[in-house]
């Protein structure tokens, strides 16, 4: 009566079935589900040890192996391709640049390196003067000048007095990036364009007086005179005896 390979043993009450592994029940009729306790790890039969797919270093020609759960992937250096980086390709054509015989890359202007991957800093060793700063471009560089300077290398100082900005006989002094006007007597302002008004009607007492004002009207106020006498001085820094 025992099923699934069970061994029957008779006794006083009847019989007993000794079931093989994986079965149970009075007649060994029940198939035990060994997976019900979930003994397996990592989706396998007792797979508690992780397999290193990159252990064999399957990538060739300096490729970098990336280990995934069930496979590997090779990241190839420039010049190689394929599942294991086993294919040698024309690296220069791969980078869309021309090559000389022997797979040496001839770089366009502004680039250098084995594969022309480096941008050349054209400002290294530039000729810009201390009055300018260098701006790097793809094939060359340019100098940007500080105020008051010009030229390809900012080597020429601009003469701000060349346009004669000072007026009314003033003297122009050229400075770095600007100018200064030294005005003649009677004028003021940045460009000496404003006339200074004259001081008139100066009261002079009846004794010797040194008058520092050029060309002005002078009133005398003698003692006992009801109306002042008006006189005109012509010479600069004149001495008046009244």
Automatic annotation (TrEMBL):
Alphabetical keyword list: Developmental protein, Differentiation, Disulfide bond, EGF-like domain, Glycoprotein, Membrane, Notch signaling pathway, Repeat, Signal, Transmembrane, Transmembrane helix, Ubl conjugation
Classification via Gene3D superfamilies: Laminin
Pfam families xrefs: EGF (PF00008)
Membrane-related topology note: Single-pass type I membrane protein
Entries under SMART domains matching the protein: EGF (SM00181), EGF_CA (SM00179)
Top-rank taxon, per record: Eukaryota
Gene Ontology annotations for the cellular component aspect, listed alphabetically: membrane
Gene Ontology terms for molecular function: calcium ion binding
EGF-like domain: residues covered: 1-29, 50-86, 88-117, 119-155, 157-193
Protein's cellular compartments: Membrane
Disulfide bonds: 19-28, 76-85, 107-116, 145-154, 183-192
One Gene Ontology biological process: Notch signaling pathway
PROSITE patterns recorded: ASX_HYDROXYL, EGF_1, EGF_2, EGF_3, EGF_CA
SUPFAM superfamilies: EGF/Laminin
PANTHER family named in the record: NEUROGENIC LOCUS NOTCH HOMOLOG PROTEIN 1 (PTHR45836:SF23), SLIT HOMOLOG (PTHR45836)
Protein name: Neurogenic locus notch protein 1
Native species: Lamprotornis superbus
